[in-house]
Amino acid sequence: MLRALRGFGWSWLAVPRPQPEPRRARRLGIRADELIRQAALSSPERGLLLHRVRNEALMTVDAYRTLFDASVVFGVRKQIQAEEGVPTMEEEAARLRDETTALEARTLALRNRLAVQERRNRERRELDERTRRQEVDFLSHQHKHLDAFLRAVPGGGR
């Protein structure tokens, strides 16, 4: 069937267009006209009815053909629009990937900086605590010696 449908001038479409050959369509039209004429000779009402049915069928086929052509044009237009938008979307995706990489690197640098700052603060706090402890130990030692000295001095004791 596809072999019979090829070569109708619709090669730009992905879907072959099923359409009778012009000669065949003309012959079928002549035969239909002859049948309608013969029916009209025997019964004018039946001939008129067949003529109307044939005209309605032809109009319906033409409407479907027009709809098909318009939908193909619409589909091609949308495909072209989609293909035109692909490079910009790819550029946007690449830019966003680069931005993500840069932000991840910045986040890593800030985390490292935070860890260093926390370590420095902890070391400083430990040093301050050690210094205070030594100072308290020194002051308590000095207090003991001064207290012992004051007790040893005559009349200076409490």
Describe the structure.
The chain is mostly helical. It has one domain. The protein has helices at 2-5, 22-42, 44-152. It starts with a helix and ends in a 6-residue tail after the last helix.
Features:
158 residues, rod-shaped, 0% strand, mainly alpha
Low-confidence stretches: 1-10
Distance between the termini: 127 Å
Whole-number tally of structural domains: 1
Estimate what percentage of residues fall within beta strands: under 5%
Task: Please count the beta strands (DSSP E, at least 2 residues each).
Answer: 0
Note the run of SSEs as H and E. Answer: HHH
Shape: rod-shaped
Mean pLDDT, as a whole number? 87
Based on helices, strands and strand pairing, what is the structural class?
A: mainly alpha
- Oligomeric form: single chain
Biggest β-sheet strands, sense, barrel: none
Number of helices: 3
Give the secondary structure arrangement, pairings included.
Elements: H1 2-5, H2 22-42, H3 44-152
